[in-house]
TrEMBL record:
CDD domains tied to this protein: biotinyl_domain
Lipoyl-binding domain boundaries: 49-125
PROSITE patterns on file: BIOTIN, BIOTINYL_LIPOYL
Pfam families the UniProt entry points to: Biotin_lipoyl
Its EC number(s): 4.1.1.70
Enzyme class: lyase
Protein name: Glutaconyl-CoA decarboxylase subunit gamma
Superkingdom of the organism of origin: Bacteria
Signal peptide: none
Alphabetized UniProt keyword annotations: Biotin, Lyase
Length: 125
């Protein structure tokens, strides 16, 4: 049984390799034990990426795309979950909804405008 330390993405792992027979013989599966910092993270589930958050009330583009339709106007009262606009990204139409109740204080986009990820499209007061 031979022991090796292998680094994957900067995390060291200790592995044991057992030779079974001569060259070309199939190898038995060997358990891999994370070492160091990686072992503390091994039991945790992967966290989803969090969207870019501007200041409270700002609705930012979650991804780059093109605004297809704007469904609200400045000064309009909106409810939480109401569709504010349709954003086309990667050939898909995405509904951008109001994160809370309020009034549309600023509308920074119009149909046909391209936006980058994190760009503030609507401000709700």
């Amino acid at each position: 049984m031979s022991k090796y330390i292998i680094k994957v993405n900067g995390n060291p792992y200790e592995v044991e390799v057992q030779e079974i027979g001569g060259p070309g013989a199939p190898m038995a599966p060997v358990a891999v034990k994370p070492k160091g910092k990686a072992s503390a993270q091994a039991g945790k589930a992967a966290q989803p990426a969090q969207p870019v958050v501007a200041s409270a009330g700002d609705v930012a583009a979650p991804m780059p795309g093109t605004v297809l339709k704007v469904k609200v106007t400045a000064g309009e009262t909106v409810k939480k979950g109401q569709v504010l606009l349709i954003l086309e990204a990667m050939k898909m139409e995405n509904e951008i909804v109001a994160p809370s109740d309020g009034k549309v204080a600023a509308l920074n986009v119009e149909a046909g405008k391209s936006v980058s990820a994190g760009e503030v499209m609507v401000t709700i007061a």
